[in-house]
Amino acid sequence: MDSLLTNASKQLQLNSMQLPNPETLLADITAKIAAQINSNSALVGIHSGGVWLMRRVLQTLKQDFPQHAIPFGTLDAALYRDDYAARGLKTDPKPSDIAFDVTDKHIILIDDIFYTGRTTRAAMNELFDYGRPASITLAVLINRGGAQLPIKPNITGAEILLQANQNLQLSQDTKGKLHLEVEQNNA
Amino acid sequence: MHNPQLDIDGKLKHLLTIEGLPKRILNQILDTAETFVGVAERDIKKVPLLRGKTVCNIFFENSTRTRTTFEIAAKRLSADVINLNVGTSSQSKGETILDTVDNLIAMHADMFVVRHAQSGAAHFIAQHVPDNISVINAGDGRHAHPTQGLLDVFTVRRYKPDMHNLRVALVGDVLHSRVARSEIHALTTLGVPEVRVIAPKTLLPADVEKLGVQVFHDMKNGLKDVDVVMMLRLQNERMTGALLPSAQEYFRTFGLTQEMLNHAKNDAIVMHPGPMNRGVEIDSSVADGSQSVILPQVTYGIAVRMAVMAILGGRQSAGERNTALQAASSMAPGGIS
């Protein structure tokens, strides 16, 4: 964390102070997800933040629902993004890993920050290449406003309106604790 | 010297040879290939990255397998694919290589996959094409076969992830093998500490040690304690060139039998780029045995070729956009300073 703080020129520390505690938000969305779990549910996290959240949610659900073996998987969606033509492929895509049969599952798709909705669209397209889910529910830690598509999260930890030149970043420290930061993007 | 394979931002622009490619690019290709391995296991084995793009396989020399794997790779990326076996078409009517290429450019091809019997053919075409077109070398003469080299190191990395702690032996006709050269460059760039070549003197290039390999002329010593055995194809036409006495004699001395393989580590893997000459360079029981990863190599070859095309295809689009922006700004009244 020290190295990040020395890079203070890119950060608005004031805003960081005002941000909610991501651990509290996680507890909130975990409770909302638990209310929707049934014997046919599955969790899918979007890399990287969504995968951290998905694993934490899964931990809690395993205690709450020992009777359900909840299938889970991860998605990168890099191969389905609509900005490939403009930006190319990112240099470190993560493999998607969905080992269960998606068809007829109630999928809870988990991401950290909801912004334009384009990542969600890409992730849904990828999911449908695995099979035909019964439903998809989108759960996010934060909706930062700025949707550009008719897509919105079903489960949200908090809504925080940010400017287009601000970048909200979730990170996970070595102990697994979550942190939120706002960076000012001056480009 | 400027590497013609990289653009001004240091991104991959053409894939012509592994020689001189930085480790960062090799790792980018291998890491990207990991994301494509799973695509083949889905209901729908396709991703939309190259939708609307046209990939031209121009094969001046026949190779059914390489052409097929490039074609499958391009199609799984949703590209349109055109296959040209030039040996059997216009070239036999007297058209030059560049005329053939110019015609395909006029048909709005976006990417060329080129196989040619002459070393340097892919470089030659890469120098000729406009900036928005990428060229992939699918084998040129004795020079290079970069995607084969990449898929081989990808296979090694999957079975033996600790590349910095490996002993790899290449066995057979190194002299005529573009695959061997590409493999050696890839292995040494990725930090494999010990690469050996095992071959008769007549099938080794004169300055082979300069590639950073150890040379062995007998299988027993060469295979001792290796983690990976990479067999090379013995090309039948070499038999007629007085380089070897006979196929039977070669098999006795340099053929990979289980008995020979037992000199390597117990968990050593056996690879072959195909097509195999069973009973010449490799015994059937080894080729089909538990240590063989020859068929996974084929599967991974598609993922690696998808990765190369996906990386090149993304750069193209960004390049086109920049060119369009530059053109727009230079056309603006008074220009933009």
Produce the secondary structure layout:
The complex is a heterodimer of chains A (187) and B (337).
Chain A: H1 2-6, H2 13-18, H3 22-34, E1 41-46, H4 49-64, E2 72-75, H5 84-87, E3 106-114, H6 118-130, E4 135-143, E5 155-159, E6 166-172, E7 178-184
Parallel strand pairs in A: 1-2, 1-3, 3-4, 4-5
Antiparallel strand pairs in A: 6-7
Chain B: H1 23-37, E1 54-59, H2 64-76, E2 80-85, H3 97-106, E3 111-116, H4 121-128, E4 134-140, H5 146-159, E5 167-171, H6 178-189, E6 194-198, E7 214-216, H7 219-223, E8 228-231, H8 247-254, H9 258-261, E9 269-271, H10 284-287, H11 294-331
Parallel strand pairs in B: 1-2, 1-3, 3-4, 5-6, 5-8, 6-7, 8-9
Helix pairs in contact in B: 1-5, 1-11, 2-11, 5-6, 5-11
Word description of this protein:
The complex is a heterodimer of chains A (187) and B (337). Chain A contains six helices and seven strands; from the N terminus they run αααβαβαβαββββ. Chain A has 187 residues and is α/β, with parallel strands linked by helices. The longest helix of chain A has 16 residues, at 49-64. Chain A has one domain: Rossmann fold. In chain A, α3 (22-34) crosses α4 (49-64). Chain B has two domains: 23-145 and 298-329, Aspartate/ornithine carbamoyltransferase (Rossmann fold), CATH 3.40.50.1370; 147-293, Aspartate/ornithine carbamoyltransferase (Rossmann fold, 3-Layer(aba) Sandwich), CATH 3.40.50.1370. Chain B has eleven helices and nine strands. Chain B has a five-stranded parallel sheet. A four-stranded parallel sheet of chain B has the order 2-1-3-4, with helices on both faces. In chain B, α1 (23-37) packs across α5 (146-159), α1 packs across α11 and α5 (146-159) packs across α6 (178-189). Chain B starts with 22 loop residues before the first helix and ends in a 6-residue tail after the last helix. Residues 328-337 of chain B have low confidence and may be disordered. The A-B interface holds A 76, 78-80, 84-89, 91-97, 125-126, 128-131 and B 11, 28, 31-32, 34-39, 42-44, 46-49, 310-311, 313-315, 317-318, 321.
